[in-house]
Write a structure and sequence with these properties.
By secondary structure, the chain is α+β, with helices and mostly antiparallel strands. The protein contains eight helices and four strands, in the order ββαβααβααααα. The protein is globular, with a radius of gyration of 16 Å.
Length: 156
Amino acid sequence: MVYFSITKWTTFQLYYTDEVPTIVDFLYNAWREKTNFEFCGIPKTLILGRHVVERFPMIYNLEPNAGVNIELATNGFATGIRSLKDWENNIAYYSYYENYKNISGFQANVEIICRDLNLRNSGKSEPNLLKWVNNQPKGKLVNDQAEFERLFESQK
């Protein structure tokens, strides 16, 4: 099983290791408009680990093509390393439900699960969904997959 997360307050996706999507497909799924989950849109800034940009250098094309500010993380906390444990705990919690005991059942309901998790109030700050709703300006919305894929191509 593979676990992906964009940031601590967006979405996650689960795949078998032999079905892992490309980074472009993964980001398209994370940022496209969804029926049961309000988070959508390409963010204004991405804070990425060095290993991510080395493995996926085409991500730098988001700067000129989509106006994304790409920053290299200075430490693991900036990349959301602390959030991994939270997501692991959340996945473990939901896996107790019978219809979420396998990846396909989990992935079929991931929008609903993510919405539930992002509405929770940790007591430390407002729920993540409220942070996103109140964020101005909103991220760039691209729902056409072919158009989204072009954002990763280098300009000539």
